[in-house]
Structure formats: C-alpha cells, structure tokens
Design brief:
Layout: E1 3-7, H1 14-17, E2 24-26, E3 36-39, E4 55-58, H2 68-73, E5 77-79, H3 86-101, H4 104-112, H5 118-128, E6 141-145, H6 149-160, E7 164-168, H7 174-179, E8 185-187, H8 190-196, E9 199-202, H9 216-219, E10 226-230, H10 239-247, E11 251-256, H11 261-264, E12 269-271, H12 280-300, E13 320-327, H13 332-342, E14 347-355, E15 358-365, H14 370-381, E16 386-393
Parallel strand pairs: 1-2, 1-3, 3-4, 4-5, 6-7, 6-9, 7-8, 9-10, 10-11, 11-12
Antiparallel strand pairs: 13-15, 13-16, 14-15
Helix pairs in contact: 3-6
Bound molecules: 1,4-dihydronicotinamide adenine dinucleotide (NAI) and 2-oxoglutaric acid.
Length: 396
C-alpha cells in the first residue's frame, strides 16, 4: 500500500520528510487525493475537506490555524509536534529580553545615522551613547505565563542567567512540573505575575481564555516600566491598549513575533516575522515528529501526539485491524462487538478511548478472510454514530 502525503505551504523541511520511508509518496497528487497533509501556519478554517484525508500533521506546536473539532467530526486526526521547536523559541525569547534591556534597536538606528570617518563616528559615540544606557536582566523578576515546553525551558535558563522566576500555569503537565526547578515560584493567580514581574513572557496557546487577555485591564496591574514579550500568538494582545501603555511609559519595551504596521517605527517595540520556531533544527524536529506520527497512524492506526483524539497505542499482532472513529455516545462499543460476533469473527484485542465528543477504537481480529472483514467494515460504516472506518492489513 502506498500513501499519498501533500505538503501545504513551502516551508516544510525536506530532510524531515525522509522519515516517511518507502510506503509514502510526497507531493505526487493533488490536495483532494492525499491521505495526509503536512503544514505549518496555513489557515485551514473554512477549508473544504476531501473524504480521502485521514490526517494532518502540524509541523509545530500551536494548532489554532486548524479547526480541530471540525476535523474530528469528519474523522481527520490532527497531529502536532510538542516541544519540537521549544528550544528555538526559548533562545529567541532570551535574546529578545537582553536585546530590549540594552536598547539595541534605538542605539543601532542612532548609530546608523552617524556618518563620516571612523574617527568622527568614535567622537559622536563617546558623546551620544549615554542615551542608550541599558539595564541587566540578572536580579530582575521574570514572569512566565504558560509553563509548557517553551515556558519551562525559559524558566530554568532564566534562573541560570541570575533572574528570579515566577510562573503561572493552572493546567501544567506532570512531566513539565517535574522538569521545572524548585526555585521557580509557581503562583495560582495570573495577577500575581502582573504585580511581581519586571519582565513578562507569554507561552500559552491561543484559546477563548487567552484571546485579548493582554489589554488595558491587565496592563494597569503591571509594574511601571515592565518589559512584555509575546512569542505565542498575536491575537492575545490588544494592540491599541498596548500602544497606549507604551506611550504612557508603563510598558517600557515590547518584543513580539507578530508584525503590525503600527509597531514598525516605534523604538520601544521590536517585531520579528514569526521566527520563533524558524531554525534548521526546529524545522527538522517538527517535520520528523509529525511524519513519524502520521506514518504510524496510517500504517497501524496508532495515535501519538494528536490534538483532537486521545493517545492510543497497541502493537498490531493480528493479520488485520479495524480502526473506528465514532461519536462518544453510549452503546457504540456494544454495537461494534455485536456486529463482530454476528459475522462469527473472534476479537483478539479491543481498545477504545474517548476524548470529548469523539472516541477511537482499535479492533484486532483473529480473521484472515479479507472478504468477510470488508463486509464487517460496511456494517460499521452504515452505523449512525460511526464516522470513519479503516481496515488495516499488518505489514510483512
Ligand atoms: N513564535 C513561534 O514561532 C512559536 C509560537 N508558539 C506558540 O507558543 C504556544 C506555547 O507553545 P509550547 O510551550 O510548545 O506549548 P505547550 O502546549 O507545551 O505549553 C502550553 C502551556 O500553556 C498552558 N496553558 C494553557 N492555557 C493557559 C492559560 N490560560 N493560562 C496559563 N497557562 C495556560 C498549558 O497548560 C501548557 O503547559 C503555542 O501554543 C504557540 O501558540 C509555539 C512555538 C513556536
Ligand atoms: O511553523 C512555524 O514557523 C510557526 C511556529 C509556531 O508558531 C508554532 O509552532 O506554534
């Protein structure tokens, strides 16, 4: 069996795609014929999904560009690459904190206006540089909102740079909590970050709760002269309020990864063109991670690192496996078992996991007769609450 993969957008790491191996063809068919997409920030809201599409791999962390519930309701599993670009974002954020503290943007602009001989420039520098006296980050308090893959790395490294660190994350994963130094003070209220921090960096996903969260109401609570960094998502910051609080001097510097014309000529704002995850290493990691997830999903039905379905791992030992995506309503598993028994097939193993409105079942069957199995698949497909059924033949 050959699977068709389509890359969407031109930013997909070619080396990472090699992880797919021989059973996969890349970019050989049109989008509507592909079984899986690999994408980065392409916006899929309102996209007209084809029935062929089984999976999407988001070669990155944030997946707000993909309507994951809509995908789930059509039986499309969406994978991301948790942590694949976290080090890249961490390095950029640490650099931006120092860059802002040393006033390098206005200093560089001023210097590039000093013309003449090197000696004349030296003289101008001697006099002019006092306008760019900066401050050090050591000894200051860094507030981190979101202690996930990125936030937890920044927390530990900022401690090494001599900062005090305060973190807020009501949903922190157990693994991250173990990784974070005990010297990071975890707080229960976001307002404690606003009140304590000299630097605030945002590392949460874009959700209904975080959209527009950084507005006048919260800027008011921050310390005078706070430095704010947003390398998470643009929509979390209310631009007019931010510009107002920059103007007032309450926010002394804002670094962001998301462009806006209103930012470009402001000396207290530094904007990068969504470069947080754009390193060779991160692009490779993320593409490999989603290629591996999609590859095992298409070949075995196992789900690893999906954002709209639960994790389901079970070695495939029987000659055939049926995978079922269904609505998470009562009696679906009972009706699956009944149909199998009516076809006189023996179940070797069954695993069913639900998450929210949808569930996923792996059904390993002690049966070699492909015709009989196809009949069973047709029975499942006719069930009202079943969304997608696949018959997978064990390789080798
Ligand atoms: N600028 C860029 O190129 C990149 C931006 N990102 C953005 O950064 C975000 C975070 O990335 P990762 O750390 O890799 O994700 P992650 O999923 O590992 O961590 C996110 C953390 O935010 C926490 N969280 C969720 N809602 C929260 C809330 N309301 N308040 C406080 N904490 C909350 C979660 O519990 C989790 O620990 C992504 O969702 C994405 O939007 C990620 C990678 C690259
Ligand atoms: O793919 C990219 O460059 C965007 C990275 C990003 O924003 C993410 O991983 O959430």
């Amino acid at each position: 069996m050959t699977y068709q993969i389509k890359t969407i957008g031109n930013n997909i790491d070619q080396e990472g795609l090699r992880s797919f191996g021989e059973a996969f063809e890349i970019d050989k068919v049109a989008e509507e014929e592909a079984q899986a997409f690999i994408c980065r920030t392409q916006d899929f809201h309102g996209y007209d999904w084809s029935d062929e599409l089984l999976a999407i791999g988001r070669a990155g962390a944030g997946f707000n560009n993909i309507p994951i519930e809509d995908c789930a309701s059509r039986g499309i599993v969406v994978f991301n690459a948790p942590g694949g670009n976290a080090n890249a974002v961490k390095e950029l954020v640490l650099a931006m904190m120092i860059f802002g503290s040393r006033k390098l943007k206005p200093a560089n602009k001023w210097l590039s206006q000093q013309l003449g001989s090197d000696q004349a420039i030296d003289l101008a520098v001697e006099d002019g540089k006092k306008a760019f006296n900066g401050r050090e980050i050591a000894g200051k308090t860094l507030g981190i909102i979101g202690l996930g893959n990125i936030g937890s790395r920044i927390a530990n490294d900022a401690l090494q740079l001599g900062m005090k660190v305060v973190g807020y994350d009501p949903f922190i994963a157990v693994e991250r909590a173990w990784e974070i130094s005990h010297r990071v003070k975890r707080v229960d209220e976001i307002s404690e970050i606003f009140e304590a921090a000299d630097y605030i960096t945002i590392h949460t996903p874009l959700t209904a709760e975080t959209r527009g969260l950084y507005s006048a109401e919260n800027f008011k609570k921050m310390k005078e002269g706070v430095v704010l960094l947003n390398f998470a998502r643009d929509e979390m910051v209310v631009k007019e309020d931010l510009l107002d609080y920059i103007e007032k001097g309450k926010i002394s510097y804002f670094a962001t990864d998301f462009g806006s014309e209103t930012y470009y000529h402001n000396e207290k704002i530094f904007v990068s063109p969504h470069l947080g995850g754009s390193t060779e290493e991160a692009s490779l990691n993320c593409t490999r991670m989603v290629a591996d997830s999609i590859s095992s999903y298409l070949k075995t039905g196992e789900i690893i690192n999906a954002v709209n379905f639960p994790r389901v791992i079970q070695a495939l030992r029987t000659p055939y496996r049926i995978t079922i995506i269904n609505k998470n309503v009562p009696n679906v598993v009972a009706s699956i078992s009944q149909a199998v028994s009516e076809e006189d097939i023996n179940i070797d193993n069954i695993i069913n996991r639900a998450s929210g409105e949808f569930a996923y079942t792996l059904l390993d069957l002690d049966e070699q007769d492909e015709g009989k199995l196809k009949e069973l698949v047709q029975r499942f497909e006719a069930e009202e609450n079943i969304i997608r059924v696949r018959l997978i033949k064990k390789e080798g």
